[in-house]
């Protein structure tokens, strides 16, 4: 992993982060605190906890362009998720970012490698905090522990669904502990750890924050874990979704537009925050979704596919006009327009800080929970007419202006509802896997688009760089 040398360095040297990149393969951002000499007080441990969120947030590519020295956190996630579905694609066939939508990702793909390393950076920072938790005030130790474990579970949940069996590291490790660092652990065992961490987080945290781990965030992610794990726990998922609903803390926004432009609103359960114009706290993915008038550094990403446009026409309701727009031949995402954008002009304008955007990454929102509630009640079946499921499903459709009463919900109904409700929020890939239709849907999509897809592509390759660092101990996924 790109940051293993830094992890070792962090536990034996007592200085702030300031590293020669020739010696340390992927040093943490300067704002992060991850060294043992620094941890002296509760405030220091809290700063370390915030540093775990910083790793998830990642570094804006407009600020530091060298992908070899920093991790992007979730800022590349749309490439590994939306682009590998029938939802979106890159505007060009050139470069490694275009590999995802064509299913030609190699073990040397730099964005896949960066995402893998980013999630392990979150995990390693979380483990580091747990190593120093006793230095926090006694009345804060349980909360800081719960936050660290929530973030560790969140990162592992991403990794296990994209890469399959992965190394399971739950403590700070030394330079010679290659077995812990590079032995791939069976998926089911990784899920056991994820569930344990999230259960602890849900039992400790409250709902006082939307930009940090909370009780509802832990419950909602755990519900999705229960629906996803090799042996689904539908009853547990239903109970968790109902606990969030019954908390009366969250609600659907009346206006779908406000979900994305009134940040940390009533619908948001967990979001990763960014700040417009602040190079240390901004993101660049919003600008990269533009194509007809290029505001980013690329020709355009997350360009909307025609079959998603067809589903919007049938099922989108008032969500359609708030999800994408067509400029000439370019169908562009508008859920995350940079601050100051005006798409009514010709050509459209994307404000003065498009590449330093402040749009939050929405990790979990209430509509997702309502639709997971339906899924849990359906329990892997073909349909349901449960009153509780109908109520949750109808609430989402009512907000979209689709108020005709629904008397039964099929698996296909639910999948398409999730598609148009959560489009471009990096959920479609995981939905297709969880519903057991990924191979069929993506094979048909690949045929339509002239790509080549087979079931082995459901897992990304373990990055070659990680295998090389491990001396071959880390094994590769089949077909790569």
Secondary-structure map:
Blueprint: H1 4-10, H2 42-57, H3 77-80, E1 88-89, H4 110-131, H5 138-163, E2 166-167, H6 178-182, E3 184-185, H7 187-204, H8 215-228, H9 234-246, H10 256-261, E4 268-272, H11 285-288, E5 303-304, H12 306-315, E6 324-327, E7 330-333, E8 341-342, E9 349-350, E10 361-365, H13 366-378, E11 383-384, H14 387-399, E12 409-410, H15 411-421, H16 428-434, H17 438-449, H18 464-469
Quickly describe the structure.
The chain has helices spanning 4-10, 42-57, 77-80, 110-131, 138-163, 178-182, 187-204, 215-228, 234-246, 256-261, 285-288, 306-315, 366-378, 387-399, 411-421, 428-434, 438-449, 464-469, and strands at residues 88-89, 166-167, 184-185, 268-272, 303-304, 324-327, 330-333, 341-342, 349-350, 361-365, 383-384, 409-410. The chain has 480 residues and is mainly alpha-helical. Helix 2 (42-57) packs antiparallel against helix 4 (110-131).
Walk me through the structure:
43% of the residues lie in helices and 7% in strands. Strand 8 and strand 9 form a beta hairpin. The chain contains 18 helices and 12 strands. Helix 2 runs parallel beside helix 5, helix 8 packs antiparallel against helix 9 and helix 8 packs parallel to helix 13. A two-stranded antiparallel sheet has the order 1-5. It has a two-stranded antiparallel ribbon with strand order 2-3. Among the domains are: 235 residues, Alpha Horseshoe (Serine Threonine Protein Phosphatase 5, Tetratricopeptide repeat); 86 residues, no CATH class. It is globular and about 55 Å long. The N terminus is likely disordered. It is mainly alpha-helical.
